[in-house]
Design goal:
The protein is an alpha+beta fold. The chain has 12 helices and 12 strands. Strand 3 and strand 4 form a beta hairpin.
Length: 445
């Protein structure tokens, strides 16, 4: 199947590249009036002997059907029209002569530009950026797992990542797209066939402040609330709210309020996630926390990898730092009342964590993969189900109608899987995988 898919990809890529770069070259002649103008006003500084600015107009071809050549002649036109050329110290052409030069040069440039647009369109086909790819796959499958960081960075040009000339599509990149497609399809088919994982747990202040001995860097338990202070120790404010698996979580900080707020009536802090250990020091920002004098619930949504936990603490650089109260890498609040000592803090009455699926629920994922009627409709005739479902999926993935000829390679992969004794879901997955790596999906055509 891998070899078969490689042939499909190679053929499709070849057709795509020929369409992109295989335009015909049309020869053109420089209008006589333009040549005469250049001879009188330009060749003195821009010929083979002088070539100021590395520009030799005397030997420069006039072939506006070539995109690079057209761009250079447009530059000549723009500079003459703007009065930049000929330069101020050189004799200026009379207005009628200048107007004729601009008109006679403009005509073939505009004609070439229009011909190019008619033949190849205004916009070159380009690959989806990795951000666009992630959003498109999420919308297509109904999943929500992060994908863009698994793909190579997009090269930029002129400050944008969407310029076709700067993009590449190598075999290495295709391999990455295959890996990401597998990951996305694994998640979608697992949710559709096995169901969504659930998790909901509430953590009380007492649970959040349990000190199991050694290297404690958790919050302070004060008047029945969990309180964090501006302590500079790394990972201070970490709490045992471990994510049971990779996923999106809704985090609710209950009844958050400020302790000794500043002049703006608030204490600002950060909610982050990570392993919170010295051998894995990187933390991911979830959101800013604004604690005020009025207790209120604060809700955040974030992707949290398995085994990561939360860290909540005041993080305003202008706040007075509180001492750790212990030696080494520990924090102790025994015999201390940091609130009475005037330190600012963030207090809350507990944390709730719930697994969520922000893009689509399980029913929507099943409908995207298996249609409105699901798999049961096709138990007696899986081949017919394959034809209909792959065609439906391809139309959504390619964002346009799909002909039978275009659909045939993807159906062939699924039919081969059925002939090999694989189930309809397995055959669909094979066809969908090929679609997700197709030039018709990866590019704007």
């Amino acid at each position: 199947m891998i070899a078969r898919f490689s042939c499909i990809w190679t053929s499709a890529l070849t057709v795509w590249l020929v369409g992109l770069f295989g335009c015909s070259v049309r020869a053109a002649e420089l209008p006589e009036s333009v040549a005469a103008f250049l001879d009188r006003h330009c060749y003195e500084c821009h010929d083979a002997d002088v070539a100021k600015g590395k520009l030799n107009l005397a030997d420069f071809a006039f072939d506006p059907a070539n995109g690079d050549n057209l761009a250079k002649w447009e530059r000549v036109f723009d500079r003459v029209r703007a009065g930049e050329m000929p330069p101020e110290k050189k004799p200026r052409p009379e207005a009628p002569e200048l107007d004729r030069f601009l008109a006679d040069l403009k005509a073939p440039l505009v004609a070439a530009d229009r011909a190019e647009a008619t033949e190849n369109g205004r916009v070159r086909s380009r690959r989806l950026t990795r951000v666009e790819y992630e959003y498109t796959v999420h919308d297509l499958l109904g999943i929500d797992i992060p994908l863009k960081d698994l793909l190579p960075e997009d090269p930029g040009a002129h400050g944008f990542e969407t310029v076709a000339d700067a993009q590449q599509l190598s075999h290495h990149q295709l391999a990455r797209y295959l890996d990401v497609a597998d990951l996305a399809l694994d998640d979608a088919f697992h949710r559709a066939l096995q169901g969504d994982a659930t998790f909901a747990k509430s953590f009380t202040p007492e649970q959040l402040t349990q000190n199991r001995g050694g290297n404690y860097r958790g919050p302070d338990l004060r008047d029945g609330k969990s309180v964090t202070w501006p302590i500079g120790l790394q990972f201070f404010g970490r709490v045992p709210t471990y994510a049971p698996e990779d996923g999106w979580y809704r985090i609710t900080l209950k009844q958050v309020e400020a302790v000794n707020p500043g002049s703006d009536g608030a204490v600002w802090g950060t909610l982050r996630s990570g392993e919170c250990e010295s051998n894995a020091p990187l933390l991911s920002m979830i959101g800013l926390v604004e604690a005020t004098g009025q207790p209120r619930d604060l809700v955040f949504e974030a992707w949290i990898p398995k085994g990561h936990r939360l860290e909540l603490k005041p993080n305003d650089g202008e706040l007075k730092k509180a001492p750790t109260g212990a030696k080494g890498g520990n924090v102790s609040f025994k015999g201390r009342d940091l609130a009475k000592q005037g330190f600012a803090g963030i207090a809350h009455s507990g944390i709730e964590m719930e697994r969520i699926y922000p893009v689509a629920d399980r029913g929507t994922v099943k409908r995207y993969l298996f249609g409105e009627d699901g798999l049961k409709k096709w138990e007696a005739d899986p081949a017919a189900g394959l034809d209909q479902l792959v065609g439906r999926f391809a139309r959504r993935a390619f964002r346009r109608p799909v002909t039978a000829e275009q659909l045939a390679p993807y159906l062939g992969i699924g039919r081969q899987a059925l002939e090999n004794g694989e189930s309809l879901p397995e055959a669909l997955r094979a066809s969908y995988r090929a679609i997700l790596c197709s030039p018709r999906f990866l590019t704007f055509l």
